[in-house]
Structure formats: C-alpha cells, structure tokens
Design goal:
The complex is a heterodimer of chains A (379) and B (223).
Chain A (H helix, E strand, L loop, with lengths): L29 E6 L4 E8 L2 E9 L1 H5 L6 H23 L8 E7 L3 H18 L3 E5 H13 L12 E6 L4 E8 L3 E7 L5 H11 L6 H9 L16 H7 L6 H16 L6 H27 L3 E5 L6 H14 L2 E3 L3 H4 L3 H13 L21 E2 L1
Parallel strand pairs in A: 1-4, 4-5, 6-9, 9-10
Antiparallel strand pairs in A: 1-2, 2-3, 5-11, 6-7, 7-8
Chain B lengths: L1 E5 L4 E7 L3 E8 L5 H16 L8 E5 L5 H18 L3 E4 L1 H16 L8 E6 L5 E9 L5 E10 L4 H8 L8 E4 L5 H13 L29
Parallel strand pairs in B: 1-4, 4-5, 6-9
Antiparallel strand pairs in B: 1-2, 2-3, 6-7, 7-8
Helix pairs in contact in B: 3-5
Classes of the chains: A alpha/beta (379), B alpha/beta (223).
Bound molecules: zinc ion.
Chain lengths: 379, 223
C-alpha cells in the first residue's frame, strides 16, 4: 500500500526524468491531464484547482452496435483522438503547450490496451516538453474532480475530508474512504462481478433498448412503478453482509430481470417495460446508496461524494439527495462533465500531488489495469 | 535530425542524422512492455546523442504492420512528441526498415553484391504473419516494395510470394524478423525526405479488424 503522503514527501530522484532547469511551480501548477482508461479520450487542463479545459472525445457510438465497450475499438479510437483532443484542450484553455508545468496521466485501473495509449502519449509529451510526469490513479481522480467544481470564485465550499466516495460507471463500482486525497485513500468495497453501468447496458438489451442502456432505462423508468417487481438486492443478505459489507454484485440482478422478462414472454404476456425498468433501476440504486450510507454511518463520516458516469442517472441523484438528507450527510455531486471519465480530473489530481510536494513519477511506470486505490500516484 | 520510434514488434527508439547515420539507439525485444520502456528509451537517446529537441526536424513513427496493442504505444508517443515540438510526424512502414537494414548490410559485406529479392516476414500472433515483398534497393539505397504489407496464414506465404516475385522467376530470399531497428526506420525517413519521396499514410497498419461480432440481441437465460 503506502502511497506518498504530503507530510513525508519522498526525496528520491526518479531514475532518468527530473526536468532540468526551472523548479516546479508548486503553488498554482498548470497541468495537462490525459485519461484513456475506458472509452473516453479525455484531455483536461487545470491551474491549481481552476478548470481551464475539459475536452472529451467518446467512442461510445462505435460500441453501440456491439452492445458494450469493445476494448480494441476503444483503444483504436484513443490513438486517433489523442492529438485532436490535445489541440482542442489547448485552444479551450487559451494556452500554449510549452506553458504547462507538468503532464498527468491515468496509469490505471482500466482497460490495459486503452490505458497504454495514454501512457505512451503522455510520456512522449512530457519528455518533448522537458516537463515532469505524474502517473495517477483513475478512481482517485474521480474524487479529485470535485475540487474543480468549487472553482476559483469560491462558489461552493471545498470538500472536507474524510469523505466516503461512491464511484459508479460502466467500468467500475467502488466505495472509497478518502481521508486525504493525495495521501490516504482506502477501498471499502467494489463490485465482485459486473459494474453497475454494465448491468444497465445488459438489462437494456433484455428490454430491446439501445446501448448505452442507462439513459434509455432512466427514461422508461420515469413512467414505471419501482415497486412493481421486487428484484433481488445483491450482497445485502446477512450472510453476505458479513463478508461483503461494502461490496456490490449486479450479475444476479441482471439474470433475475432476464428470467422475469422471459417468463412473461413465454406466457404470451406483454412485458411491462416501464415497470421492469423502474424496478430494476430501483434495485441498483437502492443497493448503491444503502451501502454508501452504511459506510458513512459505520465510519462516522458525514460526507458522501458521487462520481462516475452512472451519476447521470436521475434516480441515483434523487435517492442520494433523499437519503443523505435523512441521515444528515453532506452530499457532493460534481457537474456531470466532471463525473464521467475525463482528463480534467486527472489533471486536478496531478496538480494536488504537485502542491503536496510529491516528486514526479519515474519514466518506467506502465498501464496497470488493476491498480489499487491505495496507489494514488505510481512512482 | 529525426527521432524515430517503432513498437511494431519490440520497442526501438533512435536519433538519426542523414549524413552521420544513427547517433543513438535503444532497443528492447520484450513485446509486452512497450508502455513501460518507451519513455526511458526516448530520454536515453536524447541524452546520449546530446541532440537538443529544437534540432529535431521531425518524428518518425513505424506504422506497422504490427499486433495492435503494442503498435499503438509507439505511434501515440511519436504523434504527441511531434505535436509538442511543432514538427511533422513522418510515417514509415516498419517492414521497410527491416529491408533497408538487410540490404545495407548485404551491400556493405560484399562489394558489388547483387541484392536478391526479399520477403520480409514478422509475427502477427494468432498463427498469422505479416509480410512484404521487396525487389531490392533503388539508387538511394531505399528498399523497393513490390507488394504488401499483408497479413497471411503461414502456409499461404509460398503462393503469395510466387505471385509477388513473378518477375524474378519466383526467386527470393526470406527474412523472418523479430526486431525492427528504429535507427534503420529513421534512415529510411531521412533518405526518403531528402529525395522528396512520399511517405506512407499516417494510419496504423493493423491489417486486422477488431475481432468482435455485433450483438444479435440478448441470449436467453432460462431454457
Ligand atoms: Zn471512471
């Protein structure tokens, strides 16, 4: 475990990086972040905690005909989108590339082949500019996104620590205890099978809806009764809770929905899709928030942060607001463009690491598809 | 001077100069560590050659053919390095570097040696190979590609070669290569550029579609 803490900055000089001349701006660093862990090519530029650019090129449309993210299709798209996205981000931020202080890149977790494109691009960019590079953790990046939402104008108070973070997307479903963004992040639980976003996609297919499933199920569910069908809540039975208190499982739920629909079809009945969608969505959201709120209570942490693309789901936000209010928990939801995978959150985390005094990563890091959250920065 | 990067097989990085040749080169045969080693290798050739970034007039990318996961790392790196420098990306077919190095060695070894037609073959994984057919070199020493690069089953190669080398009565030498020299790749780019030859397209030569099948709707879970 043991990722670098800002209280004990490492003084080891990385093997062959160390940018020669100018000392690193550690008060207000201008950082370019590169994110390629799944199907979004994200380039973000931040100055300290100020968001300057957030360009996202998604290959989602290309995955639609396959009903899910195809790693090879995503990785090919990253390679093609990389340079245009960097150009677009520079234009959006109104800066020149040689003005940046550092490059930050997602090292993992995520799809290995997709991550490698970002890692290769980021290393070459940093070396060409003779700037330091920070290899960071994607999941911790989602938490870092919240720093940008506060903005330089102080529109909202910055997030306090510790906080519980619930990060839900098509690629991950994780519950984190964040005591210090740059020094102390603990994984409380994660999905043991499908990610929540994947479950939405798979159930959408069962209901004959297009990919990605989330928005379509959300739309249908609005007209349905969430209590019409009682679908199973994965890993919530007492025997499961002993071992998997904060873990998630959506594979059984997906199968239960498919069974229910097939039974209705076999009986020649018309499938009440709105009710199925609403009941399925309720089961997912119920488990997600049930476990997140339990974690807040168990650890005595009155703060919950949401992140990941599934936050786009209206019911997730609605139920989160209800239940946190009832439990006296402060709820933080960054704007959607900072919730879905993006480069700005990676730049934000890189900037935090720089401001915390961390030394750059060496040039030898790779793409780590299973990078643990305790490894906030890969050295 | 050019920075050249190839990850179509292992990883190779070099700094080359048209007149002085290969100034620095680093190669790693491991085909699984492209992302890990590429940064250190770029830094190493810059340090060893003592060439300033501003002196580079372009960045050469080996466009393959190559197994996709690794191939992309080098192309992505070459493109962003070129972008950061504000210099052009120079795309070169990786097999051309193999043929160039082979013919150059042959020419250096035996005075007046005739360069035999050459079939370059590299591993494409999944029991397939990538191939390119060369007739020899032109007056600049650049390899002349007759056919390819292509993707084939190993047992289909003889027939393909017979066809490609038809004009040579089917006589050719076969070269199975596991490494691509970025130095050779860079020299192909230097010579081509000096002679005003066109480069290949800035597109990765995967020569394979992503192997996925569009979904035919959900499968039943109950029987
Ligand atoms: Zn994510």
């Amino acid at each position: 475990m043991s990722s670098p803490s800002h209280t004990t900055p490492s003084h080891t000089t990385p093997s062959h990086t160390t940018p020669s001349h100018t000392p690193l701006n550690r008060t207000d660093p201008l950082v370019l972040g590169i994110e390629t862990s799944c199907d979004e090519t994200g380039i973000g530029i931040v100055r300290g905690t100020t968001l300057l650019a957030n360009v996202i090129a998604s290959s989602m449309d290309e995955h639609a005909r396959y009903g899910g993210v195809v790693p090879e299709v995503a990785a090919r798209a990253h390679l093609e989108e990389m340079s245009p996205a960097i150009h677009a981000a520079l234009a959006e931020a109104g800066i020149r590339l040689d003005e940046i202080d550092a490059v930050s890149v997602t090292s993992g977790p995520g799809l290995a082949g997709a991550l490698m494109v970002g890692v290769g691009a980021a290393k070459a960019l940093a070396i060409a500019l003779d700037k330091p590079i920070y290899a960071v953790n994607h999941l911790v990046g989602h938490v870092g996104a919240d720093l940008l939402a506060t903005g330089a104008d102080g529109a909202s108070e910055p997030l306090q620590y510790p906080t519980i973070a619930l990060l839900v997307s098509g690629g991950h479903t994780s519950l984190l205890l964040v005591r210090d963004l740059t020094g102390d992040v603990e994984l409380l639980g994660e999905t043991i099978d499908d990610a929540a976003g994947e479950a939405f996609d798979k159930v959408a297919r069962v209901l004959g809806l297009p990919y990605p499933g989330g928005p379509h199920i959300d739309r249908l569910a609005a007209a349905g009764n969430p209590k019409a069908i009682r679908f199973p809540r994965g890993l919530t039975l007492p025997k499961d809770m002993a071992k998997h208190r904060y873990d998630f499982s959506f594979s059984g739920l997906k199968t239960a929905v498919a069974r229910w629909v097939e039974k209705a079809q076999d009986a020649g009945e018309e499938v009440p899709v709105a009710d199925v969608a609403a009941s399925f969505r309720e089961a997912v959201v119920d488990v997600l928030l049930g476990k997140a709120i339990a974690a807040c209570a168990d650890y005595g942490v009155p703060r919950l942060l949401l992140g990941g693309g599934v936050v786009a789901n209206a019911r997730v936000r609605e139920l989160a607001a209800e239940r946190t209010a009832a439990a006296g928990i402060e709820l933080r939801i960054p704007p959607l463009s900072l919730c879905t995978d993006n480069g700005a959150m990676i730049a934000a985390l890189g900037a935090q690491l720089i401001m915390a005094g961390n030394e750059p990563s060496s040039l030898d890091f790779g793409a780590d598809s299973t990078l643990p959250v305790t490894e906030i920065q890969v050295r | 001077m050019l920075l050249a990067i190839d990850t179509s097989a292992g990883t190779s990085v070099a700094i080359v100069d048209r007149d002085r040749g290969i100034l620095a080169e680093r190669s790693e045969v491991d085909t699984m560590r492209h992302a890990e080693v590429i940064g250190g290798m770029i830094q190493a050739v810059l340090d060893e050659s003592a060439v300033a970034r501003a002196e580079l007039s372009g960045v050469v990318a080996g466009m393959g053919p190559g197994p996709f996961t690794g191939l992309r790392v080098g192309i992505a790196a070459a493109r962003t390095f070129a972008l950061a420098l504000g210099r052009p990306l120079v795309p070169i077919v990786s097999h051309d570097a193999i043929a160039f190095a082979h013919f150059a060695a042959e020419a250096a070894g035996v005075a007046g040696a005739r360069t035999a037609p050459l079939l370059v073959v590299t591993d494409a994984r999944r029991r397939e190979v990538y191939w390119s057919a060369y007739s020899g070199v032109d007056e600049l020493g650049l390899p002349v590609r007759l056919d390819g690069p292509g993707l084939a089953k190993p047992d289909a190669l003889p027939a393909l070669a017979l066809d490609a080398f038809d004009a040579f009565d089917g006589a050719f030498e076969r070269l199975d290569a596991a490494e691509i020299s970025a130095g050779a790749l860079g020299m192909v780019a230097e010579l081509s550029f000096a002679a005003g030859r066109p480069f290949t397209a800035d597109e990765p030569l995967y020569l394979r579609s992503p192997d996925v099948t569009p979904s035919n709707g959900p499968k039943r879970v109950t029987r």
